[in-house]
Amino acid sequence: MSEFDYDLFVIGAGSGGVRAARVASELGARVAVAESSRLGGTCVNVGCVPKKLFVYGSHFAYDLRDARSYGWAVDPSFDWTALRTNKDREIARLNEIYAGLLERAGVHLVQEHVRLVDPHTVAGKTGRWTARRILVAAGGRPIVPEIPGAEHARVSDEVFSLAALPRHAMVVGAGYIALELGSVLNALGVEVTLVHRGEEILRGFDDDLRHHLHAELETKGVRILLNTRVNALEKTADGLIEARLDNGERLQTDFPLFAIGREPNTAGLGLETLGVELGQRGGIVVDDSFTTSVPSIHAVGDVIDHVQLTPVAIAEGMHFAHHFFGNGERRIDYASIPTAVFCQPELATVGLSEQEAWHRCQDVRVYKSVFTPLKLTMSQREEHTIVKLVVDASNDRVVGCHMAGHNAAEIIQGLAVAMKAGATKAQFDATIGIHPTSAEEFVTLR
User: Which of 120, 212, 322, 435 is catalytic?
Assistant: First the structure.
């Protein structure tokens, strides 16, 4: 008889935790998962999935206007309650799918909050469970600003359950979440002011793409304030929130949304008492096998504060499971992770920005094109697409692919495979394009 109840106990049933639990169970381990909220974690409930559904819904605002230019007589009206309700129905369906996946994999589900009490034991309201290994996959939570009046601040999780759309949203931040939700609200008729403390939006992305997207967002009506901070929030007599900005402006809003990042969800898990090392922002410090400073305790996903992307958490969960319960190693290449920002227009990228390439390569060649997509040539919409290739001149290898425009994420996903295979610019040039498409621009850049 085993000295432990389980071989693996996972804390958190999000993308990384569920994948690790399922794979470990399929490899023969006895596995349990604890989740105190809805199954699927951030991505399914208040992240990737509902966000993308809202993006689809909001994009009809542009598509219906374009339709007139193609002979369709449309009189659009929008029902926020219908979108939110249908989104809720889809998320509930996904919650059930996750429950079924765990059940079919033979994973025991503990639906309550648990905390570690020793290196091999977790405890909750209904009991205690022991495991040879414990995997923390508790995800992250939105950061709330530390300013006077912070109790009036709203965070991204709340957007998905709004009873009604606001009239004027102040969106603080300029990363994925801020630009995506700001774009959604703007397309649905909300007046949006984006406030960012930095010199340009989307820090870390290619500069050409950042400047291009900035201009496109302003064309769509988003007001962008750079080099600006919110010093305080205060409720006014008429029920609005007044934001005091460090440029002297007093901005009134009925929805002060702070999308300034997410922090690891490590509080209340008992990690500190066991001596699990945490980083500066509270992320769990792990080695290449996702093992913490306590050998029997591991962590993957947003809780380690490394790369906060759902597919990365899934890859980490698979690597962990195969490393400890399988026979093979599955290494993760963090160097070339494709990613997308589902704002409007959409932006996607893989590999090095031009700036990064100049630091890593002796010589760099850059190919770029800005154009109006064929679909929009007959519409009244002013929107341009930009595509860009960054090439290491020493060996002709493509080291960066970047795009902002319709279907950017779908196109860049395919180019990520080519880059992973080591494709050269000559091989891009030798590839016959599909005409007329935006994707063909990548194989006709000269």
Answer: 435
Residue written as tokens 């008889």? 1
Structure token digits, residue 96: 């059930």
Give me the amino acid identity at 232: A
57 contacts: CB under 8 Å, gap ≥ 6: 83, 184, 188
pTM: 0.95
Q: Contact 352/399 with Cβ under 8 angstroms?
A: yes
CATH node for 345-443: 3.30.390.30
Sign of CA dihedral 299, 13, 53, 315: positive
| Every domain of the chain and the residues it spans | 6-142+263-325, 150-260, 345-443
Residue-wise pLDDT for 245-302, tens only, equals 999 999 999 999 999 999 999 999 999 999 999 999 999 999 999 999 999 999 999 9
* Cα separation of the two ends of the chain: 68
Tokens representing 64? 């219906």
In CATH terms, the superfamily for domain 6-142+263-325 is FAD/NAD(P)-binding domain (3.50.50.60)
How many residues are listed for the chain in this entry?
Answer: 446
Q: How far apart are CA 307 and CA 135, in angstroms?
A: 18
pLDDT tens per residue, range 68-84: 999 999 888 999 999 99
Furthest-apart CA atoms within the chain: distance in Å: 73
Structure tokens at 209: 């793409």
Tell me which residue of 299, 290, 276 sits closest to 118, measured CA to CA. Answer: 276
- Active site annotation includes 323: no
